[in-house]
Amino acid sequence: MRLLWSSCAPHCPSGYGVVTSEVTSRLKPYHDIAIHAFYGVKGGQMDWGGITIYPDDIGDYCSMIRPYYQEHKADLVITLFDAFAIREDTIRGLNWVSYVPVDHKTLPPPVEGSIKNALHVISMSRFGERILNDHEIDNTYIPHGVDTKNYYPDEDIRREARKAFDCSDVFTIGTIGLNVDERKNYEGMMRVFQRFHQKHPDSVWLIYTRWNENRNGVPALVDLPKALGLGDAVRFNKPILIYRGATKQEMNATYNAFDIFMLLSKGEGFGIPLVEAQSCGVPVLVTDSTAMTELCGSGWLARVEKEQWTGLNAFRDLVDENDALEKLELAYDLWVRGKMPKLKSTARRFALDYNWDKIVKKYWRPFMDSAKEMITPGGKYKIFYIRTARQEKRKWSELRVGDNSQQADIWYN
After folding, report:
1. What is d(CA 295, CA 202) in angstroms, rounded to the nearest whole number?
2. Single pTM value for the model
3. Using an 8 Å Cβ cutoff, are 18 and 151 in contact?
């Protein structure tokens, strides 16, 4: 089958980039694949291990999907990014499969309207699968994974990493998450750590993120520890890693330095760092919400305090910071008493089930075989939500086209 994969470029140090790299490289022996990179390649196409990577139009997620679909003579296009960003004109008439993150507690109407246009939908978590099923959207569950050969626990690597990070004798919390928008809840996590550190000054928090960016109205994260009086108890990655990314070896060493991985996000479509951390034998502390719940194989779930309404007309969950602090106390107590090894071994065993080779063999290859039966000349086109103005602040129009209806319905409160 001739496949066009649309997402971040495979060398990008993001979750989308990781999935693009791990999946397409393993499917390449069986299918003719090209990648449309909406991020990571500009100025011209390139070759990546025998796979053509096409660039996108600057500042646009998907304007070039159709031309590249045609040039590659694709039978199928799989998009791996937020479905609400896909415009009607880019997918009409194409055999489009949406590999969609569901990172809200409820399904946003713009996402639902978009993916109902797809030939098929792939869910990346059991949570997402359930939400889509509740909305009668046929979908196939294919989780993300982890490279367990390159992410593994190693005491020598741990010792050297902790020495390099100057945290050899202190309780070390770690967080890895490149997005710095409000969904990751860095401000909430910072408040939890501030209270924890006041009681336990023998603690540090290592954060790998784009700490220098001011994005979507969220101030640069680097200034928050200073405002909370945390000094060098909160430490960020080197600036160069923001731009070039880190190698798997560097990331493995970073994970190994942690005693616990903390991600008190408001919602995750999957959460690759959670399985990467556990693959390195690091237990996790996460919000008991969305995909995070099922990815806590070893560690602690912090309960939800309340819901938050978002600009996509759906709810996300806010963690109970008091409960998260209590869970940190439990982890610290185990660390002090030398009782972490059992959790570490449980974490590694859990992550092995998400090994990329297993994921591709068990889920991706059967799906690609079945997709041959789905393909239709001219693709599938029935329902789509289109922007009437700025997505964050305005209403949405529902446009129905095709056999079922020829009407346009605009809904307001």
Report:
1. 28
2. 0.89
3. no
Q: Is the Cα torsion angle 233, 293, 107, 314 positive or negative in sign? A: negative
Give the start-end residues of each E strand in 242-349. Answer: 260-263, 284-287, 299-302, 304-309, 315-319
- Asked whether the CA dihedral 7, 137, 265, 309 is positive or negative, the reply is positive
Measure the CA–CA gap between 355 and 48, rounded to whole angstroms. 23
Write the CB contacts of 403 (distance below 8 Å, at least 6 apart in sequence): 382
- What backbone torsions phi and psi does residue 245 show, to the nearest 5 degrees? 80, 175
Residue 297's region, left for phi above 0, alpha for psi from -120 to 50, else beta, is alpha
Q: 312: Cβ–Cβ under 8 A, 6 or more apart, which residues?
A: 84, 104, 108, 109, 110, 111
What tokens were used for 160?
Answer: 């050297």
- Three-class SS state of 389: coil
Alpha carbon distance 407, 402 (integer Å): 10
The answer to whether 192 and 328 are in contact (CB under 8 A) is yes
For residue 145, give the nearest of 329, 2, 354, 411 by alpha carbon: 354
| CA distance to 165, 177, 190, 266, 280, per residue, from 237 (Å) | 10, 11, 16, 23, 19
Per-residue confidence in pLDDT tens, the chain, 413 aa: 999 999 999 999 899 999 999 999 999 999 999 999 999 998 899 999 999 999 987 667 788 999 999 999 999 999 999 999 888 888 888 999 999 999 999 999 999 999 988 999 999 999 999 999 999 999 999 999 999 999 999 999 999 999 999 999 999 999 998 776 789 999 999 999 999 999 999 999 999 987 776 655 556 788 889 999 999 999 999 888 888 889 999 999 999 999 999 999 999 999 999 999 999 999 999 999 999 999 999 999 999 999 999 999 999 999 999 999 999 999 999 999 999 999 999 999 999 999 999 999 999 999 999 998 888 776 654 433 333 333 333 333 333 333 333 333 322 22
Give per-residue burial for 195-223: e unless 16+ CB within 10 Å, then b.
ebbeeeeebbbbbbbbbebeeeebeebbe
Question: Residue 143 in 3-state DSSP?
Answer: coil
Give DSSP secondary structure letters for 222-240.
GGHHHHTT-GGGEEE--HH
Tell me how far apart the 2 most distant CA atoms of the chain are, in Å.
Answer: 68
